[in-house]
Amino acid sequence: xxxGQALGWLLFAMRFVTRWLGFALLISSCAAVQARVxxxxxxxxxxxxxxxxxxxxxxLTNPSGVDGRSRSVIDIFHKSPKVNLVALFGAxxxxxxxxxxxxxxxxxxxxxxxxPIYSLYGPGPVRKPTPAMLKKIDCLVYDIQDTxxxxxxxxxTMGLCMEECGKAGVEFVVLDRPNPxxxxxxxxxxxxxxxxxxxxxxxxPYVYGMTAGELAYMxxxxxxxxxxxxxxxxxxxxWTRSMTWRGTxxxxxPTSPNIPHGDSPLHYVSTGVLGxxxxxxxxxxxxxEGMPFECVASTWMDPTGMARHLNARRLPGVRFEPLRFKSRxxxxxxxxxxxxKFTNPSTAxxxxxxxHILDAVRAVAKRDIFATRVKxxxxxxxxxxxxxxxxxxxxxxxxxxGAAIVKSWAKDEARFHQQRAKYLLYR
Length: 427
Prior knowledge:
Blueprint: H1 2-34, H2 40-46, E1 56-61, H3 73-79, E2 84-90, E3 108-109, E4 116-119, H4 131-134, E5 139-143, H5 154-168, E6 171-175, H6 212-221, E7 231-234, H7 264-278, E8 295-298, H8 303-311, E9 318-326, E10 334-342, H9 351-365, H10 369-376, H11 381-387, H12 391-397, H13 402-407, H14 410-420
Parallel strand pairs: 1-2, 1-5, 2-4, 5-6, 6-7
Antiparallel strand pairs: 3-4, 8-10, 9-10
Helix pairs in contact: 5-6, 7-9, 8-9
């Protein structure tokens, strides 16, 4: 009897301890998931700016160059007695981030600090630092939030700066930041060097799943630049490859006028290529309508039919909702179409959406956007540059479906997964 009671109490105690252990593990795992990502500029500060000590510093940044408390890295560096900030550099959209896409801007003076601003998107055209710009600095620091898409020009500017720093004997420092699309996703064909441009400079897929620091190592390690500088990557803390922007705990600062939200990079990849193809066909992807890259619409689209057709494809992590809106840009014009909603950003295919929408327009609206483009006589130059190849254009001309085009990327995607592995800094 006593033995039976003792055994009962022992079993109760074991169940109690097991439950509390499980609860404690759950709490600790939740805390780990919710731990904020610390950016490269924050880990640099934690180390007392040792990488920059005793050096004349140039800073390539824009309004997205902030720490985890939304403080500008320009102001942080300028006020710190440990950093000798002597010049600012501006990529596309400028140091203030307000210059429209594709618009050049001259050198100027920074209003708050009085520092010179050197334009890397200036008349001439200037697309990389000149020897004169680099003459008075010992290291060039890169701190810009990227979108994770090859066609977004900041990573092209980064690598071109690395090359010029290598020629001038100037150190290059990357203050690393999250890839807002995550670090696992690889989508699209690897760039064909014949289509090299500022919207596609490196032999990577359209979605490459690397941070700026990792890509900088790859640019140098693969010999994609003629002169390799001394390169320092200041890593983040708590960022993992499975994180999209929503998981970082960080506030999004617009990287350019049409990338206003943390989900904007997802949308940019999903409709931006289609926008290049559909220009002149009456297709809207929401730019100028308060939802840049978030929709595909026109005056002739059946919203319910489009949504039904696209949702029937059961693409993971994304839904298509019927949409109707009055244009802000064109008086008395009403658009109908679909709005793209990401239910699980980490699993949703992105670049593929452009081509699934092409198929849906053919099936539902009985329109061929590619054929319309051909008939209009408009150039495919930018479409090919953004895709990094003319093979997609040739596939469309041959009548190949968007779904088949997406499947054709698999070999390049697998090859790049292997090629990039040795440059990954976060596991």
